[in-house]
Design a protein that fits this description.
Blueprint: E1 2-6, H1 13-24, E2 27-30, H2 31-45, H3 52-61, E3 64-67, E4 70-73, E5 76-77, H4 85-90, H5 92-95, H6 98-112, E6 117-121, H7 124-128, E7 134-139, H8 142-155, H9 162-178, E8 191-194, H10 200-219, H11 221-232, E9 241-244
Parallel strand pairs: 1-6, 1-7, 2-6, 7-8
Antiparallel strand pairs: 3-4, 3-9, 4-5
Helix pairs in contact: 1-10, 3-6, 8-9, 10-11
Bound molecules: cytidine-5'-monophosphate (C5P).
Length: 245
């Protein structure tokens, strides 16, 4: 079963999707990390931002792996560097590049064929997995999302200003929604969940309910029971390795 979670920056997708996947015993795919890894590699190698072909060619050469919640780029742990503001500020050169998107979506679909997965991003329910059994669209107000991002950056040792983060986020929202390929739009069959006044645990419980209901509709009683049991007692061993290249 594929569960897609799409939504704007700061809606809590990564945190929620990770917890949901652990509860269900599903694999978790953070597709934003893939765009971030491509951006980090291009910046480090000095590929000019306007060189769309250079960015696409580089993306195809990279090996991006997910191992025990860490992101490895050609074997190096880049979990923290890919979240730096410098990477976020340049991410559009990867995200707006149709060839980069085509390549990364193909990789995402390959991973999806390996079995149950919760995948989060902007285009998972629309472009990468239009036939996913369960689609969620996670939202929150721009101010709440910016507050979360500020907290996140502070924990990483940065000193961001709220106004700057909010302005950058609104710009990113506009870009994400307006891009010609893979824009951020809610799939018609996605269920919207507004996380503004909800605690993380509440959101996860709500999503488990949605997934179980969807699974019930599609699988019948035995599959439903199995999923319900998995949701009650998550696997301890949720180590996973996803290899993309
Ligand atoms: O989710 P996160 O903020 O890490 O994503 C980084 C950026 O990657 C987003 O701002 C968005 O522009 C891009 N992205 C995308 N499609 C996805 C996931 C992320 O365009 N499926």
């Amino acid at each position: 079963m594929i569960v897609t979670i799409d939504g704007p920056a700061g809606a809590g997708k990564s945190t929620i999707a990770k917890l949901l996947a652990a509860k269900l015993g599903f694999r978790f795919l953070d597709t934003g990390a893939m765009y971030r890894a491509v951006t980090l590699a291009a910046l480090r190698r000095g590929v000019p931002c306007q060189d769309a072909t250079g960015w696409a060619e580089l993306a195809k050469q990279l090996e991006i792996r997910f191992l025990d919640q860490r992101v490895l780029l050609d074997g190096e742990d880049v979990t923290d560097p890919i979240r730096a503001s410098q990477v976020t500020a340049h991410i559009r050169y990867a995200a707006d590049n149709p060839q980069v998107r085509e390549h990364l979506v193909k990789l995402q679909q390959e991973i999806g064929r390996r079995g149950d997965m919760v995948t989060e991003g902007r285009d998972q329910g629309t472009v990468a997995f239009p036939h996913a059994e369960c689609k969620i669209f996670l939202t929150a107000s721009p101010e709440e999302r910016a507050r979360r991002r500020v907290r996140d950056l502070q924990q990483r040792g940065e000193r961001p200003s709220f106004d700057e983060v909010l302005a950058q986020q609104m710009q990113r929202d506009r870009r994400d929604s307006c891009r010609a390929v893979g824009p951020l739009v809610q799939a018609p069959d996605a269920i919207e969940v507004d996380t503004d006044s909800m605690a993380i645990d509440e959101v996860v419980e709500r999503l488990v309910e949605i997934v179980v209901t969807r699974r019930h509709a599609g699988l019948g009683e035995p599959g439903y029971k199995k999923l319900q049991e998995a949701a009650v007692s998550p696997r301890d061993d949720d180590a996973q390795e996803l290899c993309l290249h």
